[in-house]
Design brief:
Order of helices and strands: HHHHHHHHEHHE
Number of helices: 10
Oligomer: single chain
Number of strands: 2
Structural class: mainly alpha
Strand content: under 5%
Radius of gyration: 19 Å
Protein backbone atom coordinates (compact mmCIF):
# COMPACT_ATOMS: atom_id res chain seq x y z
CA UNK A 1 0.00 0.00 0.00
CA UNK A 2 1.44 3.36 -0.96
CA UNK A 3 2.05 5.92 1.79
CA UNK A 4 0.59 9.38 1.22
CA UNK A 5 0.65 12.51 3.34
CA UNK A 6 -2.73 13.91 4.35
CA UNK A 7 -2.37 16.65 1.73
CA UNK A 8 -1.55 14.08 -0.97
CA UNK A 9 -4.51 11.93 0.07
CA UNK A 10 -6.86 14.90 -0.26
CA UNK A 11 -5.49 15.84 -3.71
CA UNK A 12 -5.72 12.25 -4.98
CA UNK A 13 -9.24 11.75 -3.60
CA UNK A 14 -10.45 14.98 -5.21
CA UNK A 15 -8.86 13.97 -8.53
CA UNK A 16 -10.51 10.53 -8.34
CA UNK A 17 -13.89 12.10 -7.61
CA UNK A 18 -13.52 14.72 -10.35
CA UNK A 19 -12.39 12.27 -13.04
CA UNK A 20 -14.80 9.58 -11.83
CA UNK A 21 -17.73 11.98 -12.12
CA UNK A 22 -16.64 12.99 -15.63
CA UNK A 23 -16.24 9.39 -16.80
CA UNK A 24 -19.41 8.07 -15.11
CA UNK A 25 -21.41 10.94 -16.61
CA UNK A 26 -19.98 10.33 -20.08
CA UNK A 27 -20.12 6.53 -20.19
CA UNK A 28 -22.20 5.23 -17.28
CA UNK A 29 -21.14 3.17 -14.27
CA UNK A 30 -21.04 -0.17 -16.08
CA UNK A 31 -18.79 0.87 -18.97
CA UNK A 32 -16.13 2.74 -16.99
CA UNK A 33 -13.16 0.69 -15.78
CA UNK A 34 -10.81 1.29 -12.88
CA UNK A 35 -7.96 1.42 -15.42
CA UNK A 36 -9.69 4.36 -17.15
CA UNK A 37 -10.28 6.13 -13.83
CA UNK A 38 -6.67 5.84 -12.65
CA UNK A 39 -5.32 6.85 -16.05
CA UNK A 40 -7.52 9.97 -16.05
CA UNK A 41 -6.53 10.76 -12.43
CA UNK A 42 -2.84 10.16 -13.13
CA UNK A 43 -2.31 7.61 -10.35
CA UNK A 44 -1.24 3.98 -10.15
CA UNK A 45 -3.94 1.33 -10.02
CA UNK A 46 -2.69 0.11 -6.63
CA UNK A 47 -3.17 3.62 -5.27
CA UNK A 48 -6.86 3.53 -6.23
CA UNK A 49 -7.40 0.67 -3.79
CA UNK A 50 -5.96 2.77 -0.96
CA UNK A 51 -9.10 4.89 -1.33
CA UNK A 52 -11.86 2.66 -2.73
CA UNK A 53 -12.55 -1.06 -2.84
CA UNK A 54 -14.14 -0.78 -6.30
CA UNK A 55 -15.49 1.72 -8.84
CA UNK A 56 -19.01 1.37 -7.45
CA UNK A 57 -17.85 2.63 -4.05
CA UNK A 58 -16.27 5.65 -5.80
CA UNK A 59 -19.54 6.22 -7.66
CA UNK A 60 -21.50 6.23 -4.38
CA UNK A 61 -19.01 8.65 -2.81
CA UNK A 62 -19.39 11.03 -5.76
CA UNK A 63 -23.20 10.68 -5.74
CA UNK A 64 -23.28 11.38 -2.01
CA UNK A 65 -21.13 14.48 -2.47
CA UNK A 66 -23.42 15.80 -5.21
CA UNK A 67 -26.48 15.10 -3.07
CA UNK A 68 -24.98 17.05 -0.16
CA UNK A 69 -24.51 20.04 -2.48
CA UNK A 70 -28.15 19.80 -3.52
CA UNK A 71 -29.32 19.45 0.08
CA UNK A 72 -27.45 22.62 1.09
CA UNK A 73 -29.32 24.45 -1.66
CA UNK A 74 -32.56 22.82 -0.47
CA UNK A 75 -32.21 24.63 2.87
CA UNK A 76 -32.79 27.96 1.11
CA UNK A 77 -35.80 26.52 -0.75
CA UNK A 78 -37.34 25.27 2.51
CA UNK A 79 -36.82 28.63 4.21
CA UNK A 80 -38.47 30.49 1.34
CA UNK A 81 -41.47 28.10 1.32
CA UNK A 82 -41.90 27.35 5.02
CA UNK A 83 -45.42 28.85 5.04
CA UNK A 84 -46.77 26.01 2.85
CA UNK A 85 -48.78 23.25 4.57
CA UNK A 86 -46.43 20.36 5.49
CA UNK A 87 -47.58 17.93 2.79
CA UNK A 88 -47.43 20.59 0.08
CA UNK A 89 -44.01 21.72 1.31
CA UNK A 90 -42.69 18.16 1.03
CA UNK A 91 -44.23 17.76 -2.44
CA UNK A 92 -42.78 21.04 -3.72
CA UNK A 93 -39.42 20.18 -2.18
CA UNK A 94 -39.37 16.84 -3.99
CA UNK A 95 -40.34 18.48 -7.31
CA UNK A 96 -37.67 21.13 -6.74
CA UNK A 97 -35.00 18.46 -6.16
CA UNK A 98 -35.98 16.63 -9.32
CA UNK A 99 -35.70 19.88 -11.29
CA UNK A 100 -32.32 20.58 -9.67
CA UNK A 101 -31.01 17.25 -10.98
CA UNK A 102 -30.58 18.98 -14.35
CA UNK A 103 -27.51 20.63 -12.80
CA UNK A 104 -26.04 17.26 -11.80
CA UNK A 105 -25.82 15.08 -14.93
CA UNK A 106 -24.36 12.05 -13.16
CA UNK A 107 -27.31 11.93 -10.74
CA UNK A 108 -29.80 12.74 -13.48
CA UNK A 109 -28.82 9.76 -15.61
CA UNK A 110 -29.21 7.28 -12.74
CA UNK A 111 -32.24 5.00 -13.05
CA UNK A 112 -33.55 1.69 -11.71
CA UNK A 113 -30.93 -0.21 -13.75
CA UNK A 114 -28.16 1.85 -12.10
CA UNK A 115 -29.68 1.25 -8.65
CA UNK A 116 -30.02 -2.51 -9.26
CA UNK A 117 -26.41 -2.68 -10.43
CA UNK A 118 -25.13 -0.80 -7.36
CA UNK A 119 -27.21 -2.97 -4.99
CA UNK A 120 -25.62 -6.08 -6.52
CA UNK A 121 -22.07 -4.76 -6.45
CA UNK A 122 -21.86 -2.91 -3.13
CA UNK A 123 -21.83 -4.33 0.39
CA UNK A 124 -25.05 -3.71 2.33
CA UNK A 125 -23.30 -1.33 4.76
CA UNK A 126 -22.47 1.11 1.93
CA UNK A 127 -26.10 1.15 0.78
CA UNK A 128 -27.27 1.50 4.38
CA UNK A 129 -24.96 4.49 4.96
CA UNK A 130 -26.45 6.18 1.88
CA UNK A 131 -29.98 5.53 3.18
CA UNK A 132 -29.03 7.02 6.57
CA UNK A 133 -27.72 10.17 4.84
CA UNK A 134 -31.05 10.55 3.03
CA UNK A 135 -32.86 9.93 6.32
CA UNK A 136 -31.02 12.81 7.98
CA UNK A 137 -32.45 15.14 5.33
CA UNK A 138 -35.99 13.90 6.02
CA UNK A 139 -35.44 14.53 9.72
CA UNK A 140 -34.61 18.12 8.77
CA UNK A 141 -38.06 18.42 7.16
CA UNK A 142 -39.55 17.89 10.61
CA UNK A 143 -38.12 21.30 11.59
CA UNK A 144 -40.52 22.72 8.98
CA UNK A 145 -43.57 20.98 10.41
CA UNK A 146 -43.47 17.82 8.29
CA UNK A 147 -44.57 14.87 10.45
CA UNK A 148 -44.25 11.40 8.96
CA UNK A 149 -46.98 8.88 9.80
CA UNK A 150 -44.51 6.07 9.16
CA UNK A 151 -40.97 5.90 10.54
CA UNK A 152 -38.15 7.90 8.95
CA UNK A 153 -36.55 4.72 7.59
CA UNK A 154 -39.74 3.71 5.73
CA UNK A 155 -40.24 7.28 4.51
CA UNK A 156 -36.63 7.41 3.27
CA UNK A 157 -36.84 4.12 1.38
CA UNK A 158 -40.22 5.07 -0.10
CA UNK A 159 -38.93 8.42 -1.36
CA UNK A 160 -35.73 6.80 -2.70
CA UNK A 161 -37.89 4.36 -4.66
CA UNK A 162 -39.98 7.27 -5.98
CA UNK A 163 -36.85 9.15 -7.01
CA UNK A 164 -35.61 6.19 -9.05
CA UNK A 165 -39.07 5.78 -10.61
CA UNK A 166 -39.14 9.46 -11.54
CA UNK A 167 -35.71 9.20 -13.16
CA UNK A 168 -37.16 6.46 -15.35
CA UNK A 169 -39.83 8.97 -16.53
CA UNK A 170 -37.25 11.19 -18.23
CA UNK A 171 -38.33 9.95 -21.67
CA UNK A 172 -41.81 11.44 -21.19
CA UNK A 173 -42.54 14.96 -22.43
CA UNK A 174 -42.15 17.59 -19.71
CA UNK A 175 -45.89 18.23 -19.17
CA UNK A 176 -46.74 14.52 -18.87
CA UNK A 177 -43.73 13.92 -16.63
CA UNK A 178 -44.77 16.67 -14.20
CA UNK A 179 -48.40 15.47 -14.15
CA UNK A 180 -47.38 11.86 -13.47
CA UNK A 181 -44.97 12.93 -10.73
CA UNK A 182 -47.55 15.13 -9.04
CA UNK A 183 -50.23 12.42 -9.10
CA UNK A 184 -47.88 9.86 -7.57
CA UNK A 185 -46.54 12.30 -4.99
CA UNK A 186 -50.03 13.41 -3.97
CA UNK A 187 -51.06 9.81 -3.29
CA UNK A 188 -47.89 8.72 -1.53
CA UNK A 189 -47.49 11.86 0.58
CA UNK A 190 -51.14 11.68 1.69
CA UNK A 191 -50.36 8.28 3.19
CA UNK A 192 -46.98 9.32 4.63
CA UNK A 193 -47.40 12.84 6.00
CA UNK A 194 -49.84 14.27 8.53
CA UNK A 195 -51.28 17.56 7.32
CA UNK A 196 -53.42 20.26 8.81
CA UNK A 197 -56.97 18.94 9.05
CA UNK A 198 -55.97 15.22 9.00
Amino acid sequence: MPKFSDAEKEIIKQKLMQEGERLFTSYGIKKVTIDEIVQAAGIAKGSFYSFYSNKEHLYMDIAGNLQFKMWREMDAFLNENRSLPPRELCKQCFLWMFKELQRYPMLKQANSETADYLYRKLPPEVIEAHTKDDGHELIKLQEYGVQFKCGIEIATKTLQTLAISFLNLQQENAADQKTIMELILDGVLKEMISDEGD
